């Protein structure tokens, strides 16, 4: 019985890690989308592209950190 309870506890911990990783990755994607959606693009296509690239330079590192932490929490280094 103890062995089975231990196995169940391990499975639950694994499921919690997967859920946390999924939530962190979703948060990273949501933050990136929200940041891009807040842009007020002005000018011609070239100027708009520069504005989007600048925003991504700021947003992407934060998203990468969230995903990296999610992967480490999941045990997938």
Keywords:
77 residues; mainly alpha; rod-shaped
In terms of topology, how is this protein built?
Layout: H1 2-37, H2 45-74
Give an overview of the whole structure:
This protein is mostly helical and about 80 residues long. Helices cover about 85% and strands about 0% of the residues. It has one domain. α1 runs antiparallel to α2. The protein is rod-shaped, with a radius of gyration of 19 Å. The model has no long low-confidence stretch (mean pLDDT about 85).
Average pLDDT figure = 84
**What low-confidence regions span 5 or more consecutive residues with pLDDT below 50?**
none
Number of helices: 2
Count of individual beta strands: 0
Q: Share of helix among residues? A: over 70%
- Sheet/helix structural class: mainly alpha
User: How many structural domains?
Assistant: 1
Report the biggest beta sheet as strand number plus sense, adding barrel if it closes.
none
Shape, principal axes of CA atoms: rod-shaped
Radius of gyration: 19 Å
Series of secondary-structure elements, N-terminal to C-terminal: HH
Give the N-to-C terminal Cα separation: 33 Å
Strand content: under 5%
């Amino acid at each position: 019985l103890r062995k089975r309870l231990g196995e169940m506890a391990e499975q639950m911990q694994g499921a919690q890690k997967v859920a946390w990783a999924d939530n962190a990755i979703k948060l990273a994607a949501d933050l990136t989308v929200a940041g891009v959606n807040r842009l007020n693009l002005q000018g011609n296509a070239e100027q708009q592209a520069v504005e989007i690239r600048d925003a991504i330079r700021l947003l992407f590192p934060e998203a990468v950190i969230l995903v990296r932490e999610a992967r480490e929490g999941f045990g997938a280094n």
